[in-house]
C-alpha cells in the first residue's frame, strides 16, 4: 500500500506498513524528503528542540544529517491506536571526528485524516561505540 | 476500582456525622479527642490503602481513563524518589532501558535509581498518557532536577513506553530523555 492510502484509524499492521515507509525516508538522509512526512504546520520535537512547521523541521534535519554521517535508523511500532502511534527506534551514525554512536530512542506520532504526521515528539539517548560494534 | 475510595469516603462521612451527634448529646465526651484521632488515622489508612488497591485494580486492557489513573499512581511513586517504592511498580524480572542503560530485575532497578537520585537532586516529574491500548502504554514526561555536584538545574523531556502483565505490573519499560540546562527561576514543574 502507498503511504497516502495508510490513514487512521491504524491497526498494528497498517501502522507497521506505514512506519516501514517512514523508516525508508529517514534512511535516505534527505531532509527535504523526510520533511514531507509531516504536515505544513507540524508540531515537532527532537531531543530538547521544539519546532513548528515543515520548513523548520527540514532545516533542523539538514543540520542533523550533516553532523551525523553514515546515518542509519531502524524503527518499530510499539503501539498504534486510532490516529496515534508509539515507536521505538535505534540509530547508528558517526560524528565529524569519526566517533561512532548507537542511539536508542522513542517517538510518539499523531496523524491527520490524510495520514500525514501533525505531531511528533522524539527523545534519543546516544551511546559511543567502536566501528566494529555497529549492528544496523 | 473507585468503589473502594467511595466506600471509604462514605465511611469517613458517617463517622464524622456520628461524632457530631455525640458532641451535641454530650455522650462519650471523655473519649472524644481520642476517637477523633483514631478515626482520622483509620480514615487516612483506609484511603491510602484504597489508592493502592486502585492502582492494583487497574489492569489491562487499558482505556485512556484507566491508564491515566494508573499513571497518576506511578508519577506519585516516582516523586517520592524512593527507589524501593518505585521498584514495586515493576515486576521482579522487569526489563528496562533507561537512556543507554539496560537494566534487568528489581534489585538492579533499585541500584540504578539510588545512583540516579544521588546525582539528580530535588528530582520532580510530571507524566502524561500519549496512548493506551491493551497492555501497552505510551507516556510523555517532563522532569526537573539539580545536578548534585555542579548545582546546575535541568528541565528534561522524555518519552517512555511500558508493557504490563495481566496483574497490572510493568514488565517492560523503555525510556529516553533529553536534558536542557535551565536557571533555577525557570523551573515550571510544581
Mean pLDDT of chain B: 85
- Count all strands of chain B and give the number: 6
Are there runs of chain B of 5+ residues with pLDDT below 50, and where?
1-28
Radius of gyration of chain B: 21 Å
The total number of structural domains of chain A is 1
Question: Which structural category fits the helices and strands of chain B?
Answer: alpha+beta
Order of helices and strands of chain B: HHHHEEHEEEE
At CATH level 2, the architecture of chain A is Roll
Biggest beta sheet attributes of chain B? 6 strands, mixed
- Give the oligomeric state of the chains in this entry, treating copies of one chain as homo and distinct chains as hetero: heterodimer
Number of strands of chain A: 6
**CATH class identity of chain A:** Alpha Beta
Number of domains of chain B: 2
Notable features of this structure?
heterodimer; A: 136 residues; alpha+beta; Nuclear Transport Factor 2, Chain: A; six-stranded mixed β-sheet; 3 helices; globular; B: 190 residues; 2 domains; 5 helices; 6 strands; 34% strand; disordered N terminus
Outline of the structure:
By secondary structure, chain A is of the alpha+beta class.
Describe the fold and architecture.
The complex is a heterodimer of chains A (136) and B (190). The mean pLDDT of chain A is 97. Chain A has 3 helices and 6 strands. Chain A is 25% helix and 46% strand. Chain A has one domain: Nuclear Transport Factor 2, Chain: A (Roll), CATH 3.10.450.50. Chain A has helices at 12-26, 31-35, 54-67; strands at residues 38-46, 49-52, 69-81, 84-94, 100-111, 117-129. With 136 residues, chain A is of the alpha+beta class. Chain A has a 6-stranded mixed beta sheet with strand order 2-1-6-5-4-3, covered by helices on one side. Chain B is of the alpha+beta class. Chain B has 2 domains: 2-57; 64-186, Nuclear Transport Factor 2, Chain: A, CATH 3.10.450.50. Chain B is built from 5 helices and 6 strands, in the order ααααββαββββ. Chain B has a 6-stranded mixed beta sheet with strand order 2-1-6-5-4-3. In chain B, a hairpin with a 2-residue loop joins strand 1 (90-98) and strand 2 (101-104). The longest helix of chain B has 26 residues, at 32-57. Chain B starts with a helix and ends in an 8-residue tail after the last strand. Residues 1-28 of chain B have low confidence and may be disordered. At the A-B interface, strand 3, strand 4, strand 5 and strand 6 of A face strand 3, strand 4, strand 5 and strand 6 of B.
Amino acid at each position: 500500500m502507498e503511504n497516502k492510502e495508510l490513514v487512521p484509524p491504524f491497526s498494528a499492521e497498517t501502522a507497521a506498513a506505514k512506519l516501514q515507509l517512514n523508516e525508508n525516508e529517514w534512511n535516505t538522509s534527505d531532509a527535504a524528503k523526510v520533511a514531507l512526512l509531516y504536515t505544513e504546520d507540524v508540531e515537532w520535537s527532537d531531543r530538547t528542540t521544539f519546532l513548528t512547521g515543515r520548513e523548520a523541521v527540514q532545516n533542523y534535519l539538514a543540520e542533523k544529517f550533516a553532523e551525523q554521517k553514515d546515518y542509519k535508523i531502524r524503527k518499530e511500532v510499539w503501539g498504534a491506536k486510532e490516529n496515534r502511534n508509539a515507536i521505538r527506534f535505534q540509530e547508528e551514525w558517526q560524528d565529524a571526528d569519526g566517533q561512532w554512536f548507537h542511539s536508542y530512542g522513542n517517538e510518539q506520532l499523531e496523524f491527520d485524516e490524510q495520514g500525514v504526521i501533525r505531531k511528533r515528539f522524539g527523545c534519543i539517548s546516544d551511546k559511543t561505540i567502536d566501528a566494529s560494534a555497529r549492528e544496523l | 476500582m473507585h468503589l473502594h475510595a467511595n466506600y471509604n469516603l462514605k465511611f469517613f462521612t458517617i463517622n464524622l456525622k456520628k461524632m457530631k451527634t455525640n458532641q451535641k448529646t454530650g455522650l462519650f465526651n471523655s473519649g472524644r479527642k481520642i476517637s477523633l484521632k483514631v478515626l482520622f488515622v483509620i480514615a487516612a489508612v483506609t484511603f491510602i490503602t484504597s489508592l493502592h488497591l486502585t492502582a492494583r485494580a487497574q489492569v489491562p486492557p487499558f482505556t485512556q481513563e484507566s491508564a491515566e489513573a494508573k499513571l497518576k499512581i506511578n508519577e506519585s511513586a516516582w516523586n517520592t524518589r524512593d527507589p524501593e517504592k518505585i521498584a514495586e511498580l515493576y515486576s521482579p524480572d522487569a526489563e528496562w532501558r533507561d537512556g543507554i542503560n539496560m537494566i534487568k530485575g528489581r534489585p538492579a532497578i533499585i541500584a540504578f535509581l539510588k545512583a540516579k537520585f544521588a546525582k539528580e537532586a530535588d528530582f520532580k516529574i510530571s507524566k502524561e498518557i500519549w496512548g493506551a491500548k491493551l497492555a501497552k502504554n505510551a507516556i510523555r514526561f517532563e522532569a526537573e532536577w539539580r545536578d548534585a555536584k555542579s548545582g546546575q538545574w535541568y528541565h528534561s523531556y522524555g518519552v517512555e513506553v511500558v508493557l504490563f502483565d495481566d496483574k497490572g505490573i510493568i514488565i517492560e519499560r523503555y525510556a529516553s530523555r533529553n536534558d536542557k540546562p535551565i536557571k533555577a527561576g525557570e523551573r515550571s514543574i510544581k
